[in-house]
């Protein structure tokens, strides 16, 4: 519809509230799309978080040095802030599903960075929702983003074999929202939440786990661990957005205080024991 139609049927941007010159199935104005933040700071080569001043001598952040994650690398399109955060909230909580196409194409750009590392292709697994959460929301935003990302990559990288496997991992236990939880609470929240129902489907495969946001990495670690246990060769992580340490998504304060770093080191011991095939000491769970 044209501007005259919009005057009769006004439509506003779902993010900033400004009037839209045209009615669109994706009610986000061009100005807001242009304000999506991009990564422009040195990032950890493992988890993708922004490196702190004391990390510049290393290629990884301190949490990853203390607790190396079980996945090879995590990539994202941009930081979880500003219009990016607004758009993800509109998708997840307001049901603005038409926005998933463009957001998914952004995710696809991040996934494309992995092509030189895994040129043979990957099994792509969206982080699953528990059936109760899926029933409430009606859709899985990770699946929507992954589907649109792969559609875009089939155009830009037609020779790259990426296979969507949405049922390869199941969330067998309902969990609380991760928003506002401390790193330790996040790890406890997802412990034992995921399962691979058919290990043969992932055995010997390179796997890409897709989600909308990565914050402390608790979910990414948990899913990567159960995939490696099931026989996957390697696991990578791709998210639309990456939250910075200390963002509001993580409950306000910096997520890696000295106490949290110590606990992260303990988690790292569990990860290393898991990756080597040994059972965690003292009967501690592996994730």
Structure description:
The chain is an alpha/beta fold. Helices cover 37% and strands 13% of the residues. The protein has ten helices and seven strands. Strand 6, helix 9 and strand 7 (234-242) form a beta-alpha-beta unit. The longest helix is centred in the last third of the chain and has 19 residues, at 258-276. The radius of gyration is 19 Å and the shape is globular. Mean pLDDT is 81; it is low at 1-10 and 247-287.
Helix content: 25-40%
Low-confidence stretches: 1-10, 247-287
What is the element string, with H for helices and E for strands?
HHHEHHEHHEEHEEHEH
Strand order of the largest sheet: 1-7-6-2-3
Q: Compute the number of structural domains.
A: 2
Instruction: Report the major sheet.
Output: 5 strands, parallel
The chain-level structural class is alpha/beta
- Our measurement of the CA-to-CA distance between the termini, rounded to an integer number of angstroms, reads 52 Å
Query: How confident is the prediction overall: mean pLDDT?
Result: 81
Q: Rg, please? A: 19 Å
Number of strands: 7
Oligomeric state of this protein: single chain
Strand content: 5-15%
Which outline best applies? globular
Please give the count of helices: 10
Brief summary of the model shown:
The chain is of the alpha/beta class.
Secondary structure layout plus pairing:
Elements (H helix, E strand, L loop, with lengths): L2 H6 L21 H5 L27 H5 L7 E6 L2 H13 L5 H13 L9 E5 L4 H7 L3 H16 L5 E3 L5 E2 L11 H8 L3 E2 L10 E9 L3 H13 L3 E9 L15 H19 L11
Parallel strand pairs: 1-7, 2-3, 2-6, 6-7
Antiparallel strand pairs: 4-5
């Amino acid at each position: 519809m044209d501007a005259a139609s919009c005057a009769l049927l006004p439509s506003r941007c779902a993010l900033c509230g400004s009037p839209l010159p045209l009615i669109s199935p994706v009610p986000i104005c061009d100005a807001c799309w242009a304000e999506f933040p991009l990564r422009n700071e040195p990032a950890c080569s493992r988890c993708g978080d922004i490196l702190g001043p004391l990390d510049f001598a290393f290629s990884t952040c301190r949490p990853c040095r203390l607790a190396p994650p079980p996945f090879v690398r995590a990539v994202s399109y941009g930081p979880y802030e500003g219009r990016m955060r607004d758009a993800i909230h509109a998708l997840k909580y307001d049901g603005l599903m038409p926005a998933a196409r463009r957001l998914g194409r952004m995710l696809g750009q991040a996934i494309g960075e992995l092509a030189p590392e895994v040129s043979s292709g990957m099994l792509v697994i969206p982080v699953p929702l528990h059936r109760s959460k899926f029933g409430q929301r009606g859709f899985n935003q990770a699946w929507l983003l992954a589907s649109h990302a792969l559609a875009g990559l089939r155009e830009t990288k037609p020779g790259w074999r990426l296979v969507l496997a949405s049922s390869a991992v199941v969330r067998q236990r309902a969990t609380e929202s991760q928003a506002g939880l401390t790193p330790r609470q996040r790890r406890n929240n997802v412990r034992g939440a995921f399962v691979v129902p058919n290990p043969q489907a992932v055995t010997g495969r390179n796997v890409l786990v897709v989600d909308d946001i990565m914050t402390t990495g608790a979910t990414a670690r948990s899913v990567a661990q159960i995939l490696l246990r099931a026989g996957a060769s390697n696991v990578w992580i791709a998210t639309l957005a990456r939250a910075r340490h200390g963002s509001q998504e993580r409950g306000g304060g910096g997520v890696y205080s000295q106490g949290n770093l110590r606990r992260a080191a303990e988690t790292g011991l569990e990860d290393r024991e898991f990756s080597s095939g040994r059972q965690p000491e003292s009967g501690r769970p592996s994730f």
